[in-house]
Amino acid sequence: MKLLITIILTSLLCWENAKASHLRLQPRIVLGRNASPGQFPFMVSIRYGGSHICGGSIISANYIVTAAHCVTTQIDGDNFDTTPSFLSIHAGSIHIERDGVTVQVSEYKTYPGYRGLMGDLTGGKLSPTFEFFTEHIRPINLAESDPPNFSNGENLGLGSLIQDGPKPELLQHTFCPAYLIANVKCIIHMEIESLLCLLPQRRDPSGVCNSDSGGPAVYNGHLVGIANYVKGLCGSPNPDVFANVAYYADWIKDNSDLQNSDSENSNVENANTENLAVESRDSELSNLENVDSENTTHEKSDFELSNFGNVDSENFNAPSD
């Protein structure tokens, strides 16, 4: 009963803020809000030639993870990699253009067999590395298992506030967490394993937008997803699609220094999770069929694999050599 009351109050609060936001005509990631300094110290901006192109996450003093399509262009089924010397990250600041530190990417590895949404993730090595962590620069732990279905997740980004609109001055995070769904309806419709969906709550469509690719989805202080794809316009009721970090965790560890630092990372104090809902709604999984179909179910035609073969450049900006 207490959980039900909390859910109802949260939904009402989100809806009222949505209406107020529309009345003030403030375009931004729907129901997004500015992050506070140090709130998400693992978040980084991926830069190409000094300009923001994607989000990413610090996983150790030496490595970050992001989406493969942020650094690789696919043409006729072939991958063309961006020269690492063009890539850098900006960390330690919620401001997109000031404060913090900029670090060069010395090399990166893309998941073998990456194609479209299959294996859309990359691990980047930094040079120089972070010599020490601060309250503004700190890694996030990888998820070792799928989040419970219908648990509340949160995504972050420095991408456009509205479709084809301006970018924010400050890091944005979702005010009303979305539902995390692994291996149920949206995954079945796409017929692709290893993905995680972030589904907007009823009446509260939200999601990633231009240049939010590679950014994190977070649950319970752990990195559970890497932004891969959005179907349709920004803020549509369609689910946003993420690489499922738990599925790729072993590969990420094998291609970084995490195998040697698991015990250390397990003690890392992650970003403030007071705004992340940690209570599972797994018990409601059986009610999946009863949830409003406009928000949770989509016809097969909406998820044809032909629509997912290549990342939609209109929704996610990726660099090219």
UniProtKB/TrEMBL annotation:
List the InterPro entries. Peptidase_S1 (IPR050430), Peptidase_S1_PA (IPR009003), Peptidase_S1_PA_chymotrypsin (IPR043504), Peptidase_S1A (IPR001314), Trypsin_dom (IPR001254), TRYPSIN_HIS (IPR018114)
Which Pfam families does the protein's record reference? Trypsin
What are this entry's molecular-function GO terms? Answer: serine-type endopeptidase activity
Chain segments carrying region Disordered: 258-321
Annotated ranges, domain Peptidase S1 = 29-257
Identify the keywords attached in UniProt to this record, alphabetized: Disulfide bond, Hydrolase, Protease, Serine protease, Signal
Q: Which residues form the signal peptide?
A: 1-20
Q: Which family does it belong to?
A: Belongs to the peptidase S1 family.
Q: What is this protein called?
A: Pro3
